[in-house]
Amino acid sequence: MAAVSAHQFADCITCHAWSPDQSMVAICPNNSEVHIYKFSADQWEKVHVLYKHDQIISGIDWSVRSNKIVTVSHDRNSYVWNQEASEWIPTLVILRLNRAALCVQWSPQENKFAVGSGAKTVCICYYEQENNWWVSKVIRKKHNSSVTGVAWHPGNIFLATTSTDGKCRVFSTFIKGVDKRDSGTSSSHDMKFGEQIAQLDLSFTWAFGVKWSPSGNTLAYAGHNSTIYFVEDVLTSPCAQNVAFRDLPLRDVLFVSERMVIGVGFDCNPMVFTKDESGLWSFAKHLEERKIAPSGSKFSEAFGKLYGQSRYGSSSDALEPSRPRGGAHVNCITCIVPLRKGGDTIVKRFSTSGLDGKVVTWGLENYPDIPQ
Length: 372
Fold this sequence. Notes:
By secondary structure, the chain is mainly β. The longest helix is centred in the C-terminal third of the chain and has 10 residues, at 298-307. Residues 303-322 have low confidence and may be disordered. It has three helices and 30 strands. It has a single domain (5-363), classed as YVTN repeat-like/Quinoprotein amine dehydrogenase (Methylamine Dehydrogenase, Chain H, 7 Propeller), CATH 2.130.10. 39% of the residues are buried. The radius of gyration is 21 Å and the shape is globular. This is Actin-related protein 2/3 complex subunit. One of its GO terms (cellular component) is Arp2/3 protein complex. Keywords: Actin-binding, Cytoplasm, Cytoskeleton, Repeat, WD repeat.
């Protein structure tokens, strides 16, 4: 399967997000700016540049319902951007962080968003109508290291996080006056804000890219040990599986259906994981079929990369990796975003971005079997 389209937007892209109608894409070109591009006349045109942060923007999310953009940065700040006429107006969010903000995501109802940070905390931000500003409540003393990923349960109350302490956790984020009593599960409003529902000690390495399935029954996240973890019935009686693979580690994952997950990362080629009728998850295939170039030994390849080719007088062919190459991405993929229409629960299209500066759109319409 080949990519539907690919475009080089920058030398390196930290993160990206799409507008609600998917006519515009916002990217961070590995600096303190957000560049917004619009597709017209068969080409991408830069229509806006958002300046406000002082350091690299590490996370961006574009809300589907309200057309708001939220950004977080290593400068420890977050802004919510509202479009007024032809301008994007930023509103500062009070995070009270003493370390970098690393990731952000709007909740399904878009009345809150979560920010993970290097301060071992998670900020749950919401809008105070009386004061006309965004404030946050902080989940503290739960993580032992940086929070690398956040993911909202479809019920809008529970939040899953991953951390470089190797653990995945699930918290209640119920905020009185913001969340409704009938939202989430029947008992969700009885739980205190920040109460830990589950702690999953499946990985002994850094954990990344946590996501919920469309129904909220399954949780998936990646470990830096080339393993992906699946947990069924997280909120009731957790049952975990892990799938180890031979390729390089993943950085992010995406459920395209209840029984199919796409993983992306250092291998530059999206990986497909599927769940069979018996409930077992396994690696299915790479999305791209690539040609394998001849190469030398893995030892000489690694040694040459470390010390430089010319030092040992080796040819470039002998030091090229013995891995498939020539695909849509040529460097680590760090971000995967679904492209949904309306209330679709099955993802037929998604996009990826990475350290090669490309945004690539992928289609699954012709995939032989998308498990429902």
